[in-house]
Amino acid sequence: MTVGVLALQGDYSEHIGILNTLKVKAAEVRTPADLKHVQKLIIPGGESTTIASLLETTGLRKAIISRARKGTLTIFGTCAGAILLARKVSGKNVPPTLGLLNMKIERNAFGSQLQSFEAHLNIKGLQDPMVVSFIRAPRITKTGWRVEVLASHDGYPVLVRKGKILAGTFHPELRGGTEIHRLFLKMK
Fold first, then answer.
1. What secondary structure letter does DSSP report for 115?
2. How many CB atoms lie within 10 A of CB 26?
3. What is the Cα–Cα distance from 26 to 6, expressed in whole angstroms?
4. Phi/psi at 115 (nearest 5 deg)?
5. What's CA 146's distance to the chain center, in Å?
6. Potential cystine with 116: which of 38, 101, 135, 151 (Cβ 3.0-4.6 Å)?
7. Of all residues in the chain, what percent carry a pLDDT higher than 70?
């Protein structure tokens, strides 16, 4: 199995580092041709409007949507990646999304860079709480039918799953923990 990490912008190298720690074959994905060689894809945190623009210009937007709808691609979006997976987004400068996950998400809802914080999350399926970083984090304000909430913070979902799609509004890769990546790798 090869796990692709969208490497257009953002903290993709940190995700690749986690995958290397787990001894999982990782590949940077920058083109539709790169996407053809992966079974799973991580869409990292970064600037959602920039990533959305690059998805369009590279042709990856259509390729990701096509593979996801065919059921041949398992996806994990973190922070900006979660925004890009959402069907509906609110806030300033809303980017065009992939629309693959039936949820509504608000950009930068937890505040600016200065209001960034860490939190201990109890995650369904994991034995111990995990410390994660919220950096200019979005907030999931509504989930749709069959979207399972795996973790919440301050009464809002922060980690959700539906089928082959996992989305978190935080950065699990920044603290070096591998638990959520392991959860993603087990998804089929």
1. G
2. 20
3. 11
4. -90, 15
5. 18
6. 135
7. 99
* Beta strand ranges found along 2-97 (DSSP E): 2-6, 25-29, 40-43, 74-78, 86-90
Is 51 within 8 Å of 98 (Cβ atoms)? no
Catalytic annotation, residues: 79, 171, 173
Mean pLDDT of the chain: 94
- Structural domains of the chain ordered from first start: 2-186 (3.40.50.880)
Q: 116-148 burial string, b = 16+ CB within 10 Å, else e?
A: eeebebebeebeeebebbbbbbbbbbbbeeebe
Flag the least confident range among 85-94, 111-120, 157-166. 111-120
Percent share of the chain, pLDDT over 90: 84
